[in-house]
Amino acid sequence: MSFESLGLAPFLLRALAEQGYQTPTPIQQQAIPLALAGHDLLAGAQTGTGKTAAFGLPLLQHLGTAPQKVSGPRKPRALVLAPTRELATQVHDSLRGYSKYLRIPSAVVYGGVGMGNQLDALRRGVDLVIACPGRLIDHIERRSIDLSGIEILVLDEADRMLDMGFLPSIKRILAKLPKQNRQTLLFSATFPESIKQLAMEFMRNPREVQVTPQNTVAETIAHRVHPVDAARKRELLLHLLGQDTRVQTLVFAKTKHGSDKLATHLEKAGIRAAAIHGNKSQSQRLRALGDFKSGKVNVLVATDIAARGIDIDQLPRVINYDLPMVAEDYVHRIGRTGRNGANGEALSLVSQDDAKLLRQIVRLLGRDMEIRDLPGFEPQVPIRWGNSAPGKAEQPGGQRPPRKPGGGRGRRPHGGGEGQAHAHAGNRAGNRGGNGRGNRAPAAATHAQQRNQQRNGGGPRRDANR
Ligand code: AMP
What we know:
- By secondary structure, the protein is an alpha/beta fold.
- The protein has helices at residues 10-18, 26-36, 51-65, 85-98, 116-124, 133-142, 158-163, 167-175, 193-202, 233-243, 256-268, 282-294, 304-307, 327-334, 355-365, 440-455; strands at 41-44, 78-81, 106-109, 128-131, 152-155, 183-188, 207-210, 221-227, 249-252, 273-276, 299-302, 317-320, 344-350, 370-372, 422-424.
- It is globular, with a radius of gyration of 23 Å.
- Adenosine monophosphate (AMP) binds at residues 21, 23-25, 28, 47-53, 311, 313.
């Protein structure tokens, strides 16, 4: 299938060709024709699937070909809401690239920076606004933006926005938009009840499209768990990074403070590192990201929320210094490696405190995970992977004992003295490495995600300090 066959206008096709886009991704194939036909869309897709172009191209085509619906002075005609500044900036950059041969005045609106530039841009008049909900509310209150002319609304990473507590802001924003003649495109990785309700309330007979997160949880990623005592995680991280300091590595930490401390610790040890999280100013974040992309720093320590929207192609390694509090975030984290068939590594440093979280992740992924003790870092107290009888170790994925690489029954993860032996967190014994699993693992992930969300009453809330 080609972009031409999706019904896109020549001015977009030319820009896409220049960017080297040859074939539409699955979400683009499904979403673009429906969006061009004017339907509301509920789209299940994650970062890395090409979702930005999936909503961005129809949106730009509309702005480039249809005249403004309301008469009078120029008002914003399209609004994209995104959870983080990084994602907003990235969407803005992508749309600017796609609209190279159009004149679409646009503004990006997010907090943490002065109002001046945003006010200037809005005053000059724009067709397209990409905004984080909090700052957009500020503009609405100051009456520096008039949303009564919005023809297309995109909610990007809607689940994440709700997770971050933006539902009240989103509802306030929606109340300012025209109810008639508006197209709404909602993109989300998961569909907890809260999103379905939002969709029922604010969308007109939406069409549903869904791509499995297969590209994200790529088969080319090696998932490895390194058991370690919590107090020795830093040491182990240094050991892993020190093995080859040239490998660009994204390290995930739980808190803002923790990521700062970790980055400082790495720098002191001679590793070029930067931290990125919500307490950093926008310019600090952009600098850290730029330095990481250019290779000036080799390690970027990030919190989950700050890392949303980071678009780095071909990232070879992700290390979970802390496991994510919400299993779905593991999928988002490792979605940054193993793209487009490249090999990637996802390493997790797991202490006894993390065992439960790891089990949830393995269950969500529906796939094996290798557990490997590193000599000299074996935990003092063997990690108990589950809730079985005292002294009986479980694997994170379920109740089965671990297996050795050859498939035979093996040692418990910390049987002692077998530092390099492998064990698998398999809850699908016998399937490891086989292609027979096909697409089932991602599908299992999606269902498990939804179950998980439901169990948690429509989406777990996150630490306020991340
Ligand atoms: P997204 O999921 O929108 O963040 O896109 C992930 C990455 O894929 C970005 O670097 C895009 O530029 C790239 N991309 C999106 N669609 C295509 C396509 N059809 N062909 C090649 N690259 C693409």
